[in-house]
Amino acid sequence: MALISTFTSFNLPVKNVEQSKAFFTGLGFELNPQFPESENSAAFVIGDNLQVMLISHAFFNTLTERESVDTSKYAQMTIALAFESREKVNEIVNTAISLGGKLHAEPEDHGSMYHWGFVDMDGHLWAINCMNMDAVQAQG
Question: What whole-number distance in Å separates Cα of residue 124 and Cα of residue 75?
Answer without folding.
Answer: 7
